[in-house]
Design brief:
The chain is of the alpha/beta class. It is 43% helix and 21% strand. It contains five helices and five strands. It has a five-stranded parallel β-sheet with strand order 2-1-4-3-5. The longest helix has 20 residues. It is globular.
């Protein structure tokens, strides 16, 4: 299953980007042998529409235009489920084992995701009730994807 990450907003060069890239690279190297192929990160710019719902709709349209046809959709959203790393690994393995060819993971902009995109998603995932900066969310997602690969491989990186 090919996993692609889509983000509203650009991540500037610096230590945060380096750390996210390091974990995405680790995931890319370790996930492929487990049937989890990393397709990379695609960024779109934040919408310049006037209102929040218009910005959400505009960003949703531009995100969806990039998703592979028939891709399962995971949205990072503050209203989403709080999963343990083991549950997240089980979720990804379940999609892979269920025959999903691709999974789109989307990080929204400052206004979050549109209601329509949330309704279309296969999973709303939250990294907790706190609000996190975009850069931190990308780092945490990258690390969790790598952690999923180590869990599924039985590697001691994850100790539960």
């Amino acid at each position: 299953m090919k996993i692609n990450v889509y983000a509203v907003g650009r991540m500037k060069n610096g230590p945060e980007k380096e750390l996210a890239d390091r974990y995405f690279d680790r995931f890319g190297k370790s996930g492929s042998s487990l049937g989890l192929d990393f397709g990379g990160v695609s960024e779109i710019s934040e919408s310049r529409a006037q209102g929040a719902s218009e910005r959400q709709d505009d960003e949703a349209q531009r995100l969806q235009a990039q998703f592979a046809s028939g891709a399962a959709l995971l949205l990072l959203d503050e209203r989403g489920k709080n999963l343990t790393s083991m549950q997240f690994a089980d979720f990804l393995a379940g999609f892979r084992d269920g025959g999903a060819k691709s999974l789109a993971i989307a990080i929204g902009g400052p206004d979050g995701h549109s209601a329509d995109l949330r309704a279309r998603s296969d999973l709303l995932l939250s990294f907790g009730a706190l609000t996190w900066p975009h850069q931190m969310v990308r780092i945490m997602l990258a690390e969790q994807l790598y952690r999923v690969a180590t869990i599924l491989a039985g590697h001691p990186y994850h100790r539960a």
